[in-house]
Q: What sequence folds into this?
């Protein structure tokens, strides 16, 4: 079964790199969302296997977007991986306790990020 | 250019449709707000022409909904009533401009052109590329002042490329923009159109290939002849990629498709180069934003809004530059982000600093990117040498939630692993497995890799062991029973601090009941680039302190109601602030007063009158990570009186 992943980030470059790594190397299928609100709409369009969510976005940030995903029965079961720039201990503590599947710290290695995703989600590659 | 016309009055819609298509716009028509919204979810439009009074979902609500979804397409309202109120509500709901019916078609077209210009952040009324010029008002194209004639579709395609220079358009994107939704040509039609446009440009005397094929992505206008886009060097690799459009044409009214709703678009080949190239272009745009800030700073015209925008762009550079092979550039961008984060606008000294950072960054990105390093993963690497039992709980999946990655080594392989990889922190279990002195390995690690922090997971809780590892400079010591959460907590605490935060963004809170003294201290600190919070009433201390989160405290010792010692004690009682640098300012620098200040937890005592240079030096030195201070104290103990607790 092909995995479907939704990537929510306001930066087109980062979305493209992740998409390239996940589709090209991982063989999965990626849909892009360019804002928190668009991501929330798209998250309901199909049963995604994972969502990769950027923390720092204008308007609706990743924290708020995650809360809304959790509040919706349709999306609350989808594992979420956060994308964040290098974080302070206090931020890391917050990520660890909010109930996400994992965190990927930027800058990531564009060739290897798909492996990070697989490892966090326990997918066999 | 593609326009969505939302109008329920058939005669007006027909008239507008004729006018717009005659001027080379592709037009989609929606007769109610609901249909308009559905179309907008599926297609990209360059502009929306929106009647306010439409059925199902009125124009104002449609505006609001679009804007709340982050859709920034320019909206031109058509309003019948000459009622200011309606216009104001519409503009506040997110519309960009309005025109009152009945209107002159030429005026409508001029407003559309103006909005389309605005959408592209361009102010030029004539689009140009080298000596090629396109005037949208006259619908005329010239090359070296000679007019070139085009067929309508060729003209609109050229206009599309000229409006969005540097942007890559896939065949699908071109179809979306040049044809209305009821006409769906094949992709081959686009290939033909590109070929025709190219030969027409060539016939006009443009020697080089103006429109280039970006393998696997689509087409793009080459950089104008006078500009040089830097080539990125990197090993080429072709991977499979789907086109990131998610058009569900099958949901369009009147369009029958064989594919299921939600089918992903076709697979195509894309090269890493294309993504790199796209990054290059966005990088240039972001640098321009920072350059504009530099100009605004020099002319003292920087607005808080522009500063905030610059901060956002710098933040994006932090992530982007690292990913694309500029780790050092990423760090410089981080400093720029910090600099712009200040709540107050930048001052002269910071302006100089900004220019310097920007120059460094330009220098950095002028170099070719370094190929991505061997690190497989960006999360902080923890090298763990743990026996089995204590630590099998810790699994990589849990580590990922903390932004960590764990690699397990054993005693025999650890030193070899360290020659190949540099962990950010080492986790070492001391379970005295009897083999040899467990401290031997620790000594070796500290001697060979003094900069890598170490967290000790002890099998027992002995003071002797604690002291022994403390003397070796170990950062954290955990004794049983210990939960995996506690282990992670210790690991993230031990991680090296983020690149130095510059003093100029350190927030210092000064508490002094003497307004003159308060002002003097604040002046000194501000002149050095610190952000200062002043408080003259000690009884309001706690509320202000806990809401402003200063990075250092400067307390006057002699104050009414609560004196500096009492405030110091209160802060130290709260575990959250156990490491906050506190400096006490006093006129009494006799030993007894000093001793009392240190006893309640002050880090430093400054005598009045305060000397500016000394004040700043002390604040900066006190803001250093505690681990370094502890190390100094330990050295002091071991070198001087050879005593330590527990002797």
A:
């Amino acid at each position: 079964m092909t995995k479907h992943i939704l990537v929510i980030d306001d930066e087109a470059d980062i979305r493209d790199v992740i998409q390239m790594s996940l589709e090209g190397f991982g063989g999965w299928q990626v849909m892009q969302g360019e804002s928190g609100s668009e991501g929330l709409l798209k998250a309901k369009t199909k049963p995604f296997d994972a969502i990769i969510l950027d923390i720092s976005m204008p308007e609706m940030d990743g924290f708020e977007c995650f809360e809304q995903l959790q509040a919706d029965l349709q999306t609350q079961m989808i594992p979420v991986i956060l994308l964040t720039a290098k974080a302070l201990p206090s931020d890391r503590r917050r990520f660890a306790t909010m109930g996400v599947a994992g965190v990927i710290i930027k800058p990531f290695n564009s060739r290897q990020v798909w492996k990070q995703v697989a490892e966090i989600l326990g997918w066999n590659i | 250019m593609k326009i969505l016309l939302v109008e329920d009055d058939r005669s007006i819609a027909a008239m507008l449709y004729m006018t717009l298509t005659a001027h080379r716009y592709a037009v989609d028509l929606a007769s109610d707000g609901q249909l308009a919204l559905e179309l907008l979810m599926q297609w990209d439009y360059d502009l929306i022409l929106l009647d306010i009074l439409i059925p199902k979902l009125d124009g104002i609500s449609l505006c609001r909904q679009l804007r709340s979804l982050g859709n920034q397409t320019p909206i031109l309202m058509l309003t019948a009533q000459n009622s200011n109120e309606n216009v104001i509500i519409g503009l506040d709901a997110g519309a960009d401009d309005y025109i009152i019916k009945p209107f002159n078609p030429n005026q409508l077209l001029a407003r559309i052109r103006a909005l389309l210009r605005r959408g592209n952040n361009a102010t030029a009324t004539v689009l140009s590329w080298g000596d090629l010029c396109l005037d949208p008002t006259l619908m005329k194209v010239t090359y070296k002042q000679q007019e070139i004639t085009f067929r309508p579709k060729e003209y609109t395609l050229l206009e599309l490329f000229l409006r969005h220079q540097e942007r890559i358009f896939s065949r699908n994107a071109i179809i979306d923009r040049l044809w209305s939704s009821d006409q769906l040509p094949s992709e081959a039609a686009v290939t033909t159109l590109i070929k025709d446009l190219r030969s027409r440009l060539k016939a006009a005397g443009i020697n080089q290939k103006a429109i280039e094929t970006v393998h696997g992505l689509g087409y793009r206008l080459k950089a104008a002849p006078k500009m040089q886009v830097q080539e990125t060097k990197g090993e080429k690799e072709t991977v499979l990629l789907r086109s990131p459009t998610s058009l569900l044409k099958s949901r369009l009214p009147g369009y029958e498709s064989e594919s299921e709703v939600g089918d992903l678009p076709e697979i195509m080949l894309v090269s890493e180069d294309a993504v790199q190239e796209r990054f290059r272009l966005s990088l240039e745009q972001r640098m321009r934003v920072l350059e504009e800030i530099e100009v605004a700073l020099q002319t003292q015209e920087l607005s808080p809004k522009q500063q905030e925008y610059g901060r956002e762009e710098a933040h994006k550079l932090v992530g982007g530059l690292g990913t694309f092979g500029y780790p050092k550039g990423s760090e410089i961008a981080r400093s720029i982000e910090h600099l712009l984060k200040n709540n107050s606008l930048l001052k002269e000294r910071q302006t100089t600093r900004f220019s310097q950072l920007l120059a460094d960054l330009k220098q950095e990105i002028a170099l070719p990117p370094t190929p991505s390093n061997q690190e497989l993963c960006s999360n902080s690497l923890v090298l763990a040498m743990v026996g089995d039992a204590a630590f099998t709980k810790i699994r990589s999946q849990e580590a990922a939630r903390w932004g960590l990655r764990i690699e397990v080594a054993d005693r025999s392989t650890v030193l070899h692993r360290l020659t190949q990889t540099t962990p950010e922190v080492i986790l070492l279990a001391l379970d005295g497995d009897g083999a040899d002195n467990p401290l031997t390995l620790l000594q070796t690690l500290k001697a060979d890799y003094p900069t890598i922090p170490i967290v000790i997971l002890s099998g027992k809780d002995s003071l002797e062991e604690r002291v022994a590892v403390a003397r070796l400079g170990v950062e954290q010591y955990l004794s049983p029973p210990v939960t995996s959460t506690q282990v992670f907590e210790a690991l993230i605490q031990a991680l090296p601090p983020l690149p130095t935060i510059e003093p100029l963004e350190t927030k210092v809170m000064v508490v002094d009941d003497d307004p003159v003294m308060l002002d003097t201290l604040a002046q000194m600190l501000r002149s050095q680039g610190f952000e200062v919070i002043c408080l003259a009433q000690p009884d309001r201390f706690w509320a202000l302190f806990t809401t402003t989160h200063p990075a250092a405290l400067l307390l006057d010792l002699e104050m009414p109601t609560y004196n500096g010692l009492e405030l110091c004690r209160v802060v130290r009682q709260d575990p959250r602030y156990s490491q906050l640098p506190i400096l006490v300012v006093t006129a009494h620098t006799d030993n007894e007063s000093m001793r009392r200040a240190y006893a309640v937890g002050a880090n430093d005592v400054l005598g009045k009158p305060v000397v500016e240079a000394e004040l700043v030096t002390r604040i900066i030195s006190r803001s250093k990570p505690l681990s370094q201070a502890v190390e100094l104290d330990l050295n002091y103990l071991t070198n001087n009186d050879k005593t330590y607790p527990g002797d």
Remarks:
- The longest strand of chain B covers residues 380-385.
- DSSP finds 23 helices and 23 strands in chain B.
- Chain B touches chain A through 51 residues (CB under 8 Å).
- Confidence is low (pLDDT under 50) at residues 227-271, 500-504, 624-647 of chain B.
